[in-house]
Fold this protein.
Amino acid sequence: MKIKTNVNFGNIRQTYLFSEIGSRVRAYENANPDAKIIRMGIGDVTLPLPKTVTDAMIKACEEMGVRETFRGYPPEYGYAFLREAIAVHYRSLGVEVDTDTIFVSDGAKSDLGNIVDILGNNPVIIPDPVYPVYVDSNTMSGNSITYINGTKENGFLPLPSELTEQIEGSVIYLCSPNNPTGASYDKDSLKAWVDYALKTGSLIIYDSAYEAFISRDSIPHTIFEIEGADICAIEICSFSKFAGFTGVRCGWTLIPSSLMAGDVSIMALWKRRQATKFNGVSYPVQRAAAAALSKEGISACESNIAYYKENARLITELLDEKGIFYTGGKNSPYVWMECPEGCGSWEFFDRLLNEVQIVGTPGEGFGKGGDRYFRLTAFGSLENTKEAVRRLKEFL
């Protein structure tokens, strides 16, 4: 063929982090078919959906089988009942938002990857280590990326004061609680980023997919708790970790109507993008999502989150006992630990797999700053977590 392809795809990593992990685990399993491997790597939930959520989904499916209640294409921006439920959720956090600024999607990952569609060739600021989608989506678009390093010294929470130069008109990616490090910005630190964005005319893309794990008052659940964020920030959130929707797919993006690039409305651009490239989330899934935000649903979801946080407590308790540095595990399902004895992250991965049959995630896969760090997740069963902690106690 004589067509041209997007040459920027040649600049992204050809091997996806979790594909490489899967390849190494399969090789070990083939060589050791009787080994009991405990998976603490990929951040997928394991507890089933709450009954109030599945009841709502079943009822909605039944409605789809009746002429009088059948529904065709969903609204591309989300059904009014779910957008209102999300707005009520924000009100519970002390933040007033207009339902028209809420856009329902099939998950935070999609929106994080798609948001570059409405943005031009801007300089991009991304913390390292980082969730790969931020980097890869901008690399695919040919954008220039400046990394700001998360380190042991700054608790993996870099601040704009650590940038070597002030970058005007940039797009800044923040995730809090962070994936992969589990570290969470407090209000003062997040305000520093909002102030920087306002000063430089920049836009913050704020990933709050793990906000439901926050238990400290000093940690914001939403960037819109910070004054000025409504004119410099987009927030992207998800039902995946809060309500266990990883296999169902639903999330949302919140774009304030006051968010302007010159005289261009960012919200208007996103509305046009979604109307053109997205056909909405199915009615049963949106009914299930609304049920997750009901009083009964929130209670059930919080019970699941408490289960995962107990797993995290067991892991961090062991690391405290061993004197190993880590971040996360308190307001996050992720524990980001320093590899012992100066071990590299892939070397540590292989040792854990081969010596104690535990699978985690090498920090190097999230960026250069993760070279000697390792991510463990609390999304397994309590029984497996206890067994993993027992094995780790002997290994470390």
